[in-house]
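Complex record, three chains
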Amino acid sequence: MNVRRWGERLAVPTAFVLTVAILAVVFYYPVLSVLREAVVRAGSLTAAPLVDVLGDPFYTGVAHHLFTAPLSIPAGVLDWIRAGFPSVEFGLFGFTAFQAFLSTLASVVVGLPGAYLLARFEFRGRRTLRSLTILPFVLPSIMVAVGFLAMFGQNGLLNDILGALGLGQVNLLFTLEIIVLAHAFYNAPLVTRLVTTAWESVDARRVETARALGAGPFRAFRDIVVPQLLPALLTAALLTFVFTFLSFPIVLALGGLRLATVEVWLYARVQDLELAEAATLGTIETVLSLALTYLYLRYEARQTTTGGGTTLPRRALAVGWKTLRDPVRIGLAVYGVGVLVLFVGPLVSMIVESVTGPNGLTGAYYEFLLNQQATTAAGTTKPLPAIANSLAFGVGTLALAVPMGIVVSVMVTRGGTGSRLAETLMSAPLAVSGVVVGLGLLQTLVFGTTIAGYRVTAGGALAIVVAHAVAAYPFVTRNVTPALAGIDSQLVDSARSLGASRFRTLLDVELPLVWTAVLAGGAFAFAISIGEFDTTVLLAEGVESYTMPVALERYIGNRSLGPSLGPATAMGTVLLLVTAASFLVIERLGGRWEP
Amino acid sequence: MDRRQFLRRSSAGVAGLAMLAGCTGAGEGDNGSGANGSGTNGSGNGTTEAGADSTATTGSASSGGTLRVATYSSFTGEDTAGNWLKSAFETEQSGTTVEFLTPENGVNQYVQRAKQGAPIDADIYLGLNTAELVRARKKLDKPLFQSVGEDLDGADGLKKPLRIDPKKRAVPYDTGYISLVYNENEVEEPKTFDSLLESRYEGDLITENAQQSDPGRAFLLWSIIAKGEENYLDYWKQLVGNGVTVLSDWEPAYQAYSDGEAPMVVSYSTDQVYYHGPDVDMAKHQLGFLNDQGYANPETMALFESANNPQLGRTFMEFVLTETAQSKIAVKNVQFPAVKGVTPSKEFDKYAKEPPETVTHSYDELAGSVESWVEEWSRLVASE
Amino acid sequence: MSDAVPERDPTTTDAGVALDNITVEFSGVTALEDVSLSVDEGEFFTLVGPSGCGKTTTLRAVAGFEEPATGEVHIDGGRVTDLAPERRDVGVVFQHYALFPHMTVRENVAYGLRFRDPPGGVADDERVDELLSLVDMAGMGEREPEQLSGGQQQRIALARALAPGPDVLLLDEPLSALDARLRERLRVTIREIQQELGITTIYVTHDQSEALAISDRVAVVSGGRIEQVAPPETVYREPQSRFVAEFVGENNLFDGEVTATAPPRATVDGVEIALPESAAVDTGDSVALCVRPEVLSLGENDTASNATTLTATVEHREFLGDAYRVHCSWNGRSLLVKTDSREPPEGTVTLTVDTDDIHLLSDSGR
C-alpha cells in the first residue's frame, strides 16, 4: 500500500524527469553539440560566425547593414525614401520567411473550409475523411514531388483536364507558387485537424445564449465561435510557419536551387562539412522559431478554453435539390473540387505513376517489390520488413510519445511562472532544423563518446523509437495542454478528496476527459514516426532496420528496372495504403474509448 | 612467400573466372555446371596447399578474415555490382567475408568520425569522387586514406584521364561521362556551351544542384573547363537568365525531363543502355556532347589509413581491376570500365556512348578551388 | 490501514476539525489571515459571508486543496497540514456537482471506494446502493450524470462524497445553483443525512438564511477573518460586530451616546432611547444600537416604561405574503419595520421598541 502510494505520488515527477533525460540525451545534447560551433571557436566564445552570416547581404539582404554598419542606417533609409521606395531584398532569410508566410496563408485558406466542413456537416464517410486528413503528413517529399510533377507538370493531369475543358494551360513547376501549394498540401491538413477539434468542443449553449441575446448567426459566430477557434488556428499557423520556414526537401525537389531556403543552404554547408557556418545558420533559425513559439505560448496561456457542454449539431451536407441553391453548400462543392485537385490529384497521380511504364500500363514495379521480397541476396531491401518495421516503430513511438507529451502537458498546466519558457524549450524539437538534429545525432549517439575508457554508442530499434518519440511528442503536448487547462478544477479536487492520488486523478478523470486531444496527438505521433527518414537511417544498426520511407529512398537508387522512379512510386503507394489503413484503425479503436 | 601468394592468387583467379563463365553461360547447362565444378576444385587445391606449409598459413592469414567495404546503398542488394563482387571475391579468397556498410551521408561519415576521434569501422571506401577526396583531405589534419603505391596489380591499365589522384590513394574502378540528354523532337542538338545561351533554348535545360548532386557538380566543373575559371560565373549568370532549372538531384531532374517539363537534361552518356528497343522513342534519348566533350566523373575506391587488413584490401582492389570484375561492374552499375580495353558486353558497347573527348579535373586541379567554385555558383543561382 | 506510519500526528485537541492560525496567500494577496476555528465532532458548522470573503478558501484549506502559508489543520485530533487531499478522509461537495461526466452514477459513487484497502468487492456494490437510497436516488445507478437534473446531480455528488465514509463532510455552496424551492428541500435532506450519520460537517454558503436554518453553529467570515462564531440564534440576536449585524438578517443600526447608566440611556440624534438594564456602559460611551425590523411594532402606543416610542413616516410598503416590510423615515434616516399586521397603517405612525429587544454592539467603532 505504501509502495503503491509512493509509486503513484512519484509517477508524474519521475516520468517528467525521464522525459527531460530522454530529451537531454537524444535532443539537447546532440543539437547543442552542433550549435556550439556557432559561438565557440578554438575553445573560446565568439560572435564572429554570427556576425559573418548576419552581415552577409546574401543571407540578410539590406538588413546586413544592421550588423556591419549600423550607423549608416538612417542615411540609408533616407536614400531609400528619396529614391521612391524601390523594392528591397532581404536575402536568403528574407526569402525563406516570405515563402513561409505565403505557405502559412495558403495552408490556412485551404485548411479552414475543411475544418468547417468536417465540424459542422454530417455526410457519409465523414469520419473516414477525417482520419485520412493526416495522410499528407507521412508522405516522403520525394513522393509528393513525383505526385506534384505528374499532377501540375506541363503534361500533367491538371493541364490535360484544363485542355479538355478548353481552359488553356498553367505552368506551375519550379515556381514559388508550386512550393507554396506543396507546403499547403502538407500543412493545410494540420490546420484542418486542429481547428476541427476546437470547433467540435465549442459549447453549443454559448452560441445559443448569444443568439438569444439578439446576435445574428454571423455575429454569434464572430463573437463566440471565432475566439474559441483562434488558439487552435494560431497553433496550426505557427506550426506551419515554423515547418515551412525550416522546409528543405520539398523546396529542393519542386523549386530548384533558385528558390532555395535557409535550410537548403544549411544542408549544403553540412555536405561540405562547413559545420561552423551550418551551425550558425541553424542557430539563427532556431532562435527565430523558438522566439515565435514562445510568443505564441504566452498568447495561448491568456486564452481561456473551457471544454465540455454540448457540441454544436452537424447539419446534413446534402439536402436534396435544395443543396444546389444554398450558397454555402455550393461554396463547399467548389472547395471540394479544389481539394480534389490539390490533394487527391497528386496522390492519385503518384499511384498512376506506379502502374505506368515508359510504354503504358505495367505491373512491373509491383513485380519488382515482390521480387525484392523473394530474393535471398544480402543487403536487399524488402517491402514486408519495411512495413513491419514502420508499424513497429510507429506503435513504439505512440507508446512513448503519448506519455511524454501528457507528462509535459501536466507539468506545464500545473506550473506557474516560467512554465511558458519551459514549454518553449520542451517544444524545441518542432523548431530545430532537421538537418541539425540529424548531424547532432550522428556526432553524438552514432559516433559515441568515450566514458571511462569505453566507447558508448547508441543505435538500433530502441534508439530509433526514442528519437521518433522526441520528434513526435510536442504534437501530443500541443493537443493536450489546452484541453487539460480547460478541465473544471472541481473535478480534479473531487477525485482527490475521494482518495485518488494526483496520478490516479490524471488516469481516471483528466485523461478520459481529454481523450480526443490525446488521440489527435497520438495520430500525429504515429504519422511522424511513419514518415520519418533522416533519423531512422542514421540510427539504424546494420541494414535491417529500414522502414517504408527508407525502402522507398533505396528503391529510387535501384536501377534494375532502369533509371525509373517506378519502384519507388510502387513503394510510395504501399506506404500510402498501409498508413491510411493504420489511421482508420487508430481512430476507430481510439474512438471507442472516447467518452 | 611471394611465389606462393602469386600461386594462390592465380589459382583463385581461375576459380573466379570459371565462376564467371558459369554465370555468363547460364542457359548452356553443361558448360555451366562443368565450370562450377572446376571452380570448386580450384579452391580445394588452394586449401590443401596452404595446409601443407605452415609458412603459407601465416602468409594467407592476411588474406583471410573480414573486409569491410563502405559504399553507397544502391551499390549493394539484389543483382548489383556490389553483390557480384562480394560473392566472386569470397569465392576467390576462401575464408574471406566481404561486409558492406552504406552510411547515408557517404564519405562525410568517415571524415567526421576521423575528426571526432570516433572509430572507423571500414577498410575500404568505394564510390569516392575527386571532389570528395579533396574534401576528405582538406577537412582533416591527418590523411584519411592511404596510398596504394605504384605496384597495385592492374593499375597500369587504367585509362589516363581517370587517373585523377597523383598520390595514388583513390583508384578509379568505373566512370560515367556527363552529357546532355535531349529530345530531338523538340530541340535541335545544342553543340556548344555557348549555344545553350541562345534564346531558342530558353527554359529548355534542367540540371542538378552542384552542392549535392554528382552530375550537377560535374556539369558545373565541365562548364569551368569550357569557359575558364574567370568566366564561368558570367556564363552561368546568362544561363540562369535563359531559364535553366537547377533541381536537387539526378532523379527528380530526370523525372522532370521524362515528364516533358523541359527537352534537355544533364545526365549520363549511358542513357541509351536503359532506353532502347522497338518500343522506345529514341528521339527522347539523344546525347549531346557539348563542345564535343564529355566530363568524366570517375568513381574511385580508397583504402582507409586505419584499415585493419590493408593487405586484404589491396587484394580486393586488385580484384576489382581485373577484366572480369571491370566488365561486370560496368554492366551492373551502368558505368564505363576504368581499365582500358575491357569490353563489358555487346549491348553495353552498342548503347553506352563515350564522348569524342574526355575532360575532367584531377585532384590537384580541384584541391583548393572546388569549394569556392561551387559556393560562388550556388550563391549566384540562388540570388538571381 | 496497514500503514506502519501513523496517518496523522496525534495532538491534544479532540475537535472534529481544528484550524490553528491559518494564513493563506495567493501570489502575495492574503486570502485568509490568521484564522482559528474549532468544529466539534458531529457538528454541523457553517461558514457564511459575502463572496470573496475567504470562506471557500477556509474549506479548501481543510480539504487540502490550499496550502496554508502558516498555521495548522487538524482533523479528528490529528495533524493533517502536510497531508495530500486524498489522505485526509474528507468528502467534498461542490457547487456545480463536479460529477465525472464519463462515468455512470454508480461509477461516480463507487469511485472513492476504489482506494480503500483492502478493496471492498461485493460490499462496495452494496455500499453504493445504500448511499443511493440514502439520497433517495435508488435505481438511478446506471444513468449518465448529464441525464440528471441539477438537484439529482447534487444528491449523487453528496452520495459520492459520503461513500468512502469520510471523517468530515465539506460542502461548498452545494445549493447555490438550484432554484429556491429545491434549495430549501435539499437543505433539509442534507441536514437529516448529517444528523443520521453524525458526521462532522463544514458547510459554506453566502446565504445567511440557509446558514441559520441548517447549522449547529455559524461562523461569519469577512475580509479573510472570522467575525463571529456562535449558534445561529446568538449570531442573529447578538451580533458581535456591525458587519455581522448587517450581514445576518436585516437590521436598523443607530449610533448614539450614553447619557445615563442607571437605568442606562442613550441619545440618538437628540432622541432619548432606553437601553437594556444589563448593558454595561459608562456615560459618554459611543454605542451602536441594533433594532431588528420585527421588534419594532407599528402604530401601537405601548405605554410600558421599558419601551421607547418614535414617530415616523411610512414611505413604502412591500407585501411578503405572511408579512409586510414597511420602509419608514425617522429623523431623516430610513427605518425598516416588519409586521404581520394584515393592514399596516400609512402616513405618520408611531414605532415602539421594547428596551430588552435592543442589542448593543460592544464596540461601536467597528
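Note: The two ends of chain B are 64 Å apart (CA to CA).
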